[in-house]
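Why run this: before we spend reagent on co-expression, it is cheaper to look at a predicted model of the complex and decide which construct boundaries make sense. The entries below are exactly what would go into the expression plan.
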Amino acid sequence: MKPAEILNTHKLKRTSCREGILEVVINAGQPLSENEIRENLPGNYDRTTFYRSFKTLEEHQIIHKIVIDNQLVKYALHNSITHKQDHAHFYCNDCDMVKCLDDIPVQKYQLPDGFSDNETEVIIKGTCPKCKNKD
Amino acid sequence: MKPAEILNTHKLKRTSCREGILEVVINAGQPLSENEIRENLPGNYDRTTFYRSFKTLEEHQIIHKIVIDNQLVKYALHNSITHKQDHAHFYCNDCDMVKCLDDIPVQKYQLPDGFSDNETEVIIKGTCPKCKNKD
DNA sequence: TTATTTTTTGCAACATTATTGCATTTAGAC
DNA sequence: GTCTAAATGCAATAATGTTGCAAAAAATAA
Ligand SMILES: [Mn+2]
Ligand SMILES: [Mn+2]
Ligand SMILES: [Zn+2]
Ligand SMILES: [Zn+2]
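The model came back. Tokens follow.
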């Protein structure tokens, strides 16, 4: 699906920042940091606009962010199939790569009395195949 | 266990910053942010020293941090019983309270081929009992 | 005890990530 | 093409965290 289509589907204005972010993230096929996105965007770049665009795209559940250890944030497209379902994320300690594990639904945890949940985040840290074969 | 004892056990110097952080976190009985810790510390406060003290205490697995949505970080004592075991954390969307769910071990996830894991973080977001009874 | 070495501290500077206010521009509806 | 609500760009500000370095404190050696 193309950026313009996605924006139309959600009745969002087609602005260059929104289209640019989507374009880059779709092409990458994996979660990217703000800097990685910026590096792949042509022309001038405004951080405020990025954050506001992200907020909009997030509210429409088009992209989501993955926070690793505060100070590393990656942005990723929602897989249109699993979409709303909570899924786990993988983080490679060696190369900082983040991967959406769309096929791995998160476990439903039994909370203590009185607590109720509505979202669960799971981040699995380890080594990715690429880094493992680097010895 | 008292701060001084803990530091002695780990053969760490008893400095006022380390003792202060431990004192405050032990008294609170729940994870606190840097600001919440600072507010409960007497005398002058240096952020650099806080971060360096935290690093030391973390390396000795005395306290650990919980990152909620980057921009909210809470620091908590390690439960001496479950200690090294990965445990889930609860975050209240209403009051920002964080709770260590020491009794809830994290599930072992089956990763795709070639990936290996060595640590898993689970954050369950929802409403705490106090906030639920506030209608 | 005194001297030497190591660790910790406090401060300034800097980096990164993120938010707000406001004037200007633009996309899309008419 | 005109109009208007929405989005943008820029400056200012905030929160969180790190680094270098000289001074202070603690541990160790003599
Ligand atoms: Mn994902
Ligand atoms: Mn915990
Ligand atoms: Zn890797
Ligand atoms: Zn609450």
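Chain A has a mean pLDDT of 93. Chain A touches chain B at residues 67, 69-71, 73, 88, 90, 93, 101, 103-104, 106-107, 109-129, 132 (CB under 8 Å). Bring this page to Monday's planning discussion.
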